[in-house]
Amino acid sequence: MKIALMDSGIGLLAAAAAVRRLRPDAELVVSSDPGSMPWGPRTPEDVTARALAVARAAADHRPDALIVACNTASVHALPALRAALEPALPVIGTVPAIKPAAAGGGPMAIWATPATTGSPYQRGLIAEFAGDVDVTEVPCPGLADAIEHGDEAGIDRAVAAAAALTPPGVQAVVLGCTHYELVADRIRAAVQQPGRPPLVLHGSAGAVAAQALRRIGAGPAPTAAPSGTLTVLLGGRPGTLPQPALAYAEGRALQAVAPTR
User: Fold this and answer.
1) What InterPro entries would the database entry show (predicted)?
2) Could you please report the per-residue DSSP string of 108-170?
3) What does 246-259 look like in DSSP terms, one character per residue?
């Protein structure tokens, strides 16, 4: 089987690694356009146009499913992507894990880009799934960009600033941008309060990976032979994983397991 993933940049690594854990034998196509990062401040029309270009580059490789591993693209471009590519190519969007986080009860925070924080989209998810829960929306300016470029000092500054806006009593944090999952341990360390129960972080990578398999009628096979290849597309052209991707465990795992085609 062949699974494609798209994002503006390396935020797709978390979902790609999740697919690889479930199906080590799956061929992966990862398509991004890091030169256009970040997408968050762009207009919905611009995001849609760029997402369509990145998605079509992946679709040219004839995958069985396409994961939109980007919250911004899922918010603004998912209807256009599905209209352009389905039913021939199932398209799986990424939704912040607000529903499972709210199911745990107790105070929770949602870390997201400034464009997503307070947006009608996010407020709608909160109203639908977390109406009875104490929710704090936390904007994280610069965090996705710092993660994209492997800027360690920038990551530390952005995480510390967001942690300062996070109430000390929260029991769960929703990672509302796929890039944030790459630094989940650093976020947990910054938010965890001494003497409090362990903080629960809710990302989307595992859920979208499992949904992609369901959409194509496949099941997990984590013990399958690690035979899947990796195809990297940058701005629609063949490439290799950007160097900053190798700063993260997910990027190193992808490169180590499968040769790049």
Assistant:
1) Asp/Glu/hydantoin_racemase, Asp/Glu_race, Asp/Glu_racemase_AS_1
2) EEEEE-TTTTT-HHHHHHHHHH-TTS-EEEEE-TTHHHHHHTT-HHHHHHHHHHHHHTS-TT-
3) GGSHHHHHHHHHS-
Calculate the CA 77 to chain-centre distance: 15
Whether residue 140 lies in the annotated active site: no
Cα gap 200→210, rounded to integer Å: 20
The answer to whether residue 39 scores a pLDDT higher than 90 is: no
pLDDT at 261 over 80: no
Cα 199 to Cα 193: distance, rounded to the nearest angstrom: 8
Catalytic choice (13, 59, 70, 209) = 70
Give the pLDDT confidence score for residue 34 in this predicted structure.
84
Q: Tell me if residue 70 is catalytic.
A: yes
Q: What is the DSSP letter of 197?
A: P
> What average pLDDT score do residues 44-69 get?
95
Taking the C-alpha atoms of residue 200 and residue 97, their distance in angstroms, rounded to an integer, is: 12
Tokens of 161: 């600033």
Handedness of CA 102, 180, 113, 169 (dihedral sign): positive
Measuring CA to CA, which residue among 60, 54, 67, 95 is closest to residue 3?
67
CB atoms under 10 Å from CB of 147, counted, come to 28
Which listed residue (101, 109, 177, 245) is catalytic?
A: 177
pLDDT given at position 37: 74
pTM greater than the 0.85 cutoff: yes
pLDDT band at 257 (very low <50, low <70, confident <90, very high): low
